[in-house]
Amino acid sequence: MQITLNLPDSLSQTETFSQSDWLQEIAIALFQQERISLSRASKIAGIEIMSFQKLLADRGICVHYDVKDFEQDVQHLRDRGWL
Predict the structure, then answer these.
(1) Sequence-ordered list of residues with C-beta below 8 angstroms from that of 56, at least 6 positions apart, any chain
(2) Residue 67: partners with Cβ closer than 8 Å, 6 or more residues away
């Protein structure tokens, strides 16, 4: 499998990237290439799903939200006792 990372110009100093930074970039790339769900991408990135959505929005990346994602979100709410 090949993953292409398109880093924004603001991240040109990749030698200062931490492991967390790289995980976020990998999660964004996998999500953008529709290889993983929004929920899975946020877990890989190590941040809450809403923070991950904001990160995507800040980069102008469209959130692909389908029935499977909705069902995962509903299950997550049930698991936490919110539904």
Answers:
(1) 28, 31, 62, 63
(2) none
